[in-house]
Amino acid sequence: MVLILGFLVAVCALWFFGWLAEEMLEGSTAQFDSQVRSAIHAHSSDQLTAIMKFLTFFGSSLLMAPLAILILAICYIRREFHALELLAATFAGAVVLELLLKVIFQRPRPVPFFDLPQPATYSFPSGHALFSFCFFAGLAAVVSSRLERLAARIALWFFSFVLVFGIGFSRIYLGVHYPSDVLAGYAAGIVWVATLQFAVDLHRRHAERERPPA
Q1: If I label 32, which of 8, 39, 66, 75 is the partner at 20 to 30 A Cα–Cα?
Q2: Concatenated DSSP letters for the chain?
Q3: Confidence band of 148 (pLDDT split at 50, 70, 90)
Q4: Whole-prediction pTM value?
């Protein structure tokens, strides 16, 4: 059941990404992007801007890359090789996927708010949204499997998704991404994480079937 669910999640996220990309290329997301950007910017404040800048820095490669390396190093030191392989594949795949998709679609950036400098990379999809989803979802999957209490696992996943949402929202709030960029980043992240989990579960089941009886 879990195997089928993972496959369906990956397929649905892939369909949504493809649909959103097509709508973006046709210009059909322009009104949605403009309305959401305007609505969010209308409720801006100095305090909220400071929080959003912190969240966007937290989701940046300047911080996420060293964190990813640190986590992989900890897995190696603790000889958690399965977690090391899974997280390394998750992180590396997210980076490659982001760079590849940005080059494919080459969507120009919107004009940022608050006199922020315009990022040099393309806009679609949001790298912050894509990588933060892969990073925290992958990490939560590894850590939650080691937690005995259900409440602790729920709290971990809840905190992870709140943080991922906050990072994505900060990109829209600061005006450095369109809302459709962030949604596409999440969709791409879901595709990659769900596909990896599907492959891991499939391999585990195959290994269990091939294992000789005791």
Answers
A1: 8
A2: -HHHHHHHHHHHHHHHHHHHHHHHHTTTTHHHHHHHHHHHHTT--HHHHHHHHHHHHHTSHHHHHHHHHHHHHHHHHTT-HHHHHHHHHHHHHHHHHHHHHHHHH-PPPPPPSTTPPPPSS--SS-HHHHHHHHHHHHHHHHHHTT---HHHHHHHHHHHHHHHHHHHHHHHHTTSS-HHHHHHHHHHHHHHHHHHHHHHHHHHHHHHHHSPP-
A3: confident
A4: 0.90
